[in-house]
Write a structure and sequence with these properties.
The chain contains six helices and eleven strands. It is an alpha/beta fold. It has two domains: about 100 residues, Formyl transferase, N-terminal domain (Rossmann fold); about 100 residues, Rossmann fold (3-Layer(aba) Sandwich). The structure holds ligand NHR and glycinamide ribonucleotide (GAR).
Length: about 220
């Protein structure tokens, strides 16, 4: 635990699966590199490994199973109430797999980030690695963006590119992309915590300057 008394950004992390991005945030917070406090981890799926990671780190967990709700609207209303109980400064989608209603995205506008495994605006939606392979792309990657009502359409903060290598299958490509995820998500959240990264009038700004549509560019220095 960092011992400084500097105010920490309160973060609620939403997951649906293995939680490797969550782990990168836990590690960053524990090493003192990332000035955040993870106030809670919420999963829409019971029994996922990400919940185990959170509990092992001593973080409060909650499961809100979407299957128990009659509509997206009622699920999202309950999810909002659950999140707001922890009064987060930032909501982080880390492999969260439910599309969110406009009411939900409006409520957290400018204070909710997602990590999407493609070079947005390419390959919005699901199964991005296979789709990048099928399209014969020479490069693929991952984007951290602010969440808006438009699915995977909010302003980009950081994007990392990786090469597609001969003989890659979707699993190999996903692994290469995920190594970059675990670098750029903590970095984007650090910039947000420091006040360097903000969303203003629908655009992402870094240190007061408009970022390009693809966000701050990072080229992976490994194959
Ligand atoms: N909601 C909004 N309004 N805007 C975004 O940018 C969002 C969002 C919700 C999730 C993550 C996203 C991704 O990075 C995300 C961004 C799930 C689906 C999906 O089709 C699509 C995109 C993303 C997450 N989900 C199915 C659904 O019906 C369920 C799939 C499943 O449960 O496996 O919600 O890719
Ligand atoms: C990550 O690769 C993330 O980019 C992707 O799911 C994985 C979650 O991994 N997100 C989406 O596809 C969102 N629709 P994790 O649970 O190990 O962090």
């Amino acid at each position: 635990m960092p011992t400084s008394s500097r105010p920490q950004l309160r973060v609620v992390v939403l997951i649906s699966g293995s939680g490797s991005n969550l782990q990168a945030l836990i590690d960053g917070a524990n090493s003192g590199e990332l000035p955040i406090e993870i106030a809670a981890v919420i999963s829409n799926r019971p029994d996922v490994f990400g919940l185990t990671r959170a509990k092992d780190a001593g973080i409060v967990t909650q499961v809100l199973d979407h299957k128990g709700f009659a509509s997206r609207e009622t699920f999202d209303a309950a999810l909002m109430q659950t999140i707001d109980h922890y009064q987060p400064d930032l909501v982080v989608l880390a492999g969260f797999m439910r599309i969110l209603t406009p009411e939900f995205t409006r409520h957290y506008l400018g204070r909710m980030l997602n990590i999407h495994p493609s070079l947005l605006p390419k390959f919005q939606g699901l199964h991005t690695h296979q789709r990048a392979l099928d399209a014969g792309e020479s490069h693929h990657g991952v984007t951290v963006h602010f969440v808006t009502a438009e699915l995977d359409g909010g302003p980009a903060a950081i994007q990392a590119r990786v090469p597609v290598l001969p003989g890659d299958d979707a699993t190999q490509l996903a692994k290469r992309v995920q190594r970059q995820e675990h670098i750029i998500y903590p970095l984007a959240i650090k910039w947000f915590a420091q006040g360097h990264l903000v969303m203003h009038e629908g655009k992402a700004l870094l240190n007061g300057e408009l970022l390009p549509a693809s966000g701050y560019q990072i080229e992976a220095n490994e194959p």
